[in-house]
Amino acid sequence: MCFAYIKDQLYAKIIRKFKVFFFFFFNFKLCSKGAALGKPFEASAEDIASVASFIETKLVTCYLRMRKPDLALNHAHRSIVLNPAYFRNHLRQATVFRCLERYSEAARSAMIADYMFWLCGGSEQCISKLIKLYWQAMIEEAITRAESFSVMYTPFATKIRADKIEKVREVFTKTHPAYVEYIYTDLQGVHMLPQTADWSSFPPQQYLLTLGFKNKEDGKFLEKLSSRKLPTFTEHKTPFGLLTKEDTVRHMETMGKRILPILDFIRSTQLNGSFHGCSGVMEKLQYASLLSRLQRVKEQSQVINQAMAELATIPYLQDISQEETELLQSLMADAMDTLEGRRNDKERVWNTIQKVGRIEDFLYQLEDSFLKTKKLRTARRQKTKLKRLQTVQQS
Predict the structure, then answer these.
(1) Which of 278, 294, 324, 384 could make a disulfide contact with 188, Cβ separation 3.0–4.6 Å?
(2) Residues 198, 337: Cα–Cα separation, whole Å
(3) Quick check: 163 pLDDT over 70?
(4) pTM for the complete prediction?
(5) What is the percent of the chain with per-residue pLDDT over 70, rounded to a whole number?
């Protein structure tokens, strides 16, 4: 007990020293950007980010050794924002998520770590094998702990046809009879499993992901999200009305307990899904806005830092268009402003996108209502005509 106390005190002292160094490093970097690197006035932005990332990783390590993963989380995210190409930063993030029992997110971090290791020229197969085993263990743990849904991966080599999807769903129904209230097949991106993942082969072994739910409402939102160009989750009956506190709490719980965990699981085997449709970043930022309204500052900070780490990594995982690049930059700028408390009066990009989604939903509802009313009117007219015809015939 005494040894553990002394060890914690030692790590706490180290953390304080790192934080002091971090403060002075960033306060004086504009005056002498190269001082920390032995080259005054010559250090590049990349060099500064590399040193800052190194400090963040040491803070992560100290907090993990103190068994305080919650305090390590933001530092793990920031180390990735500063140096997204370094695979060990993603592994540390995976470790923090595992300690917090967030296994789907740990699996994704491990997958990205393995990809970054290969992308940056890592040739030691033993390291890649160990990372893949970690990735596999996290996926299996996530599946084991999932209560509201079950999952099936189906390998395929050619283009997926409609009849193939139907056969997959039939097999899923037979093997998972308790999870057939709503069955969703993800067609938004390629899924890979650690057992067969080979980043150097093209195309890699691909899998079709099928999710089945006990509760229809738990999975119904997936179809809406996958059909949108820009993702958003809305439950507003009126698109221009302000959320009450009760509505905000309800939306926050829906996002945090139902939607984000499922999206995180989907992304645990999907390296480069559609940036607009399935990245999961936009949903996290919209979730952060709900936390902000409820003044849950610590959770909001963690969610935004995680989203920024994801945004910083995206260009390494897939090719993105000019339009997507501009959107990514806008999201990063607004996320940074939110963390630093700047331009609070300015509406954030993700909130604007959410408003557009609400208006779309409202228009779809009007269209559905119009079509239903039209169908009912047509049926009534036909019924009236039939009655008149019968009356004429009888007379």
Answers:
(1) 278
(2) 39
(3) yes
(4) 0.81
(5) 78
Whether residue 35 contacts residue 27, with contact meaning beta carbons closer than 8 Å, is answered with no
Cα–Cα distance for residue pair 106/104, rounded to 1 Å:
5
What pLDDT, in 10s, does the model give residues 278-296? Answer: 467 888 988 998 898 899 9
- Two structure tokens written together for 389: 């015809």
Distance of CA 164 to CAs 143, 206, 341, Å?
24, 14, 50
Nearest-angstrom CA–CA distance, 230 and 276: 5
Strand stretches in the chain, DSSP E = 149-156, 182-191, 206-213
- The CA distance from 232 to 355, in Å, is 9
Contact status, residue 95 vs residue 122, Cβ threshold 8 Å: no
What is the Cα gyration radius of the chain? 25
CB 185 within 8 A of CB 162: no
pLDDT digits (tens, 9 = 90+) for 183-210: 999 887 789 999 999 998 877 788 999 9
Q: Is the C-alpha dihedral spanning 174, 176, 182, 188 positive or negative?
A: negative
